[in-house]
Amino acid sequence: MIRDSALWGEFGTIAVGDTRRRLSFFVMVLAWSRQMYVEFTLSQTMEQFLAAHVNAFNVLGVPKKVMVDNLRCAVLRHPRGEHAEFNPRYLDFARHYGFQIVACAVAKGNEKGRVERAIRYVREAFFAARTFTDLEDLNAQADAWCAGQAADRPCPEDLKLSVREAFAAEQPRLLGLPENPFPTDEVLTVKVGKTPYVRFDLNDYTIPHTHVMSLLTVRADPRRVRVTDGAQLLADHPRSYDRDQQVEDPAHVRTLVEHKRQARHHRGANQLGKAAPASLDLLARAAERGSNLGTLTAALLRLLDRYGAAALQVAIVDALQSGVPHPNAVRLALERRREARHDQPPLATCLPQHVKDKDAPVQPHRLDAYDALAEENNDEQS
After folding, report:
1. Nearest 5°: phi and psi at 24?
2. For a designed S-S bond to 75, which of 25, 70, 79, 242 qualifies (C-beta 3.0 to 4.6 A apart)?
3. Residues with Cβ < 8 Å from 59, sequence gap 6 or more?
4. For the chain, how far is it from start to end, CA to CA, in angstroms?
5. Across-strand partners of 197?
């Protein structure tokens, strides 16, 4: 006799290669027909737990009861002889799909024999000696196995039927899916620092540099990590389950590099404007001709280091008067004046950083505090 539809769900783990690395898998088994759903995962987080439920419901249907072990995603606490305290989010999920949660009694392994045997069956009949390329390939093989070999085995409740036939008889008793799926994504508000990265689950994900020092929202599912500013999508990355990884979008990096290049150009232009004001006019005229301002600025800065501010100002004025707003014209004007004075060719002086640091401006401090300390010492001695 077919009883009210019930589904057993639990996580299992399998060692992969190095025994220190383990792969999780989520198994859901219909209590009467023993039809299974298997999904391999890289974690046992709450969003993965709920997403696996949704995927199982899409394949099997929604049962009237879901029986769970006392894992943290479903049960917060379950004292012996008392009712279980369920996770509030899992309760919302159950209300959305219309099923009742049933928690196994503590230290009562006999109550979850169906799912424990299913976990052992997955390890021995499916995973043992199986090869796969990635997690997506492994889950595709698991779907085919559940619909094939696992469905062809005899149904323990009625040995005359296969699991496939028993499931066909049980399926009409399952509930239908709601119109809207339950939102299973993990949502987190993060504060971005000075660097264009958001920190999530021990990894860093790039965002556009224009949104540093702001409050953003991270939405993560088992496969993707999305960063939004209100309704605006800023970044969409594949999720990493490693630690201390930097997951970067090449477009974000290119934009940041271009922004820094422009920032260097503006700093160089400001330096030239203070040393030789005529350089701003030269750069403006060069921009009208479509010249590369970054290259021109770097060339003028090199001339500034070699010849000095006064000589550069005069040479830039000569270049502008001749109608050639280009560093070569400025360099020729500087060389003509040097040869007219019979000076030696200037040499660029490249000082090491510790020598340059000696010329750094230092803000002098008032000496009143030292005078006060000296007076206190004199009073103590007297």
Report:
1. -90, 155
2. 70
3. 37, 143
4. 106
5. 206
Closest by Cα among 137, 115, 142 to 55: 142
- Sheet strands (E) in the chain: 6-15, 22-30, 36-41, 65-68, 75-77, 85-86, 100-103, 154-155, 158-162, 186-191, 197-200, 203-206, 215-220, 224-229, 232-238, 246-247
In sequence order, what are the beta bridge partners of 233?
228
Residues 238 and 189: their CA atoms lie apart, in Å, by: 19
* Calpha distance 299→307 (Å, rounded): 12
- Positive/negative CA dihedral, 116, 120, 126, 130: positive
Instruction: For 158-226, give the DSSP string.
Output: EEEEEHHHHHHHHGGGSBPPPSS-----EEEEEE--SSSEEEETTEEEE--GGGTTSEEEEEE-SSEEE
Run of H or E including 302: helix 293-307
| Per-residue model confidence as pLDDT tens digits over 199-236 | 998 899 999 999 999 999 999 988 899 999 988 999 99
Task: Pull the structure tokens for residue 356.
Answer: 């340059």
DSSP 44-82: --HHHHHHHHHHHHHHH-B-SEEEE-S-TTTEEE--TTS
Residues 169-208: pLDDT tens digits? 988 888 889 988 898 888 999 999 988 999 998 899 999 9
Instruction: Yes or no: say if 238 and 247 are a contact pair by the CB < 8 Å rule.
Output: yes
- pLDDT tens, position by position, 38-59: 999 888 888 888 999 999 999 9
Nearest to 229 by CA among 216, 214, 220: 216
Residues 6+ apart with CB under 8 A from 83: none
Yes or no: say if 14 and 22 are a contact pair by the CB < 8 Å rule: yes
Candidates 3.40.50.1820, 3.40.50.2000, 3.30.420.10, 3.10.20.30; CATH matching 6-173: 3.30.420.10
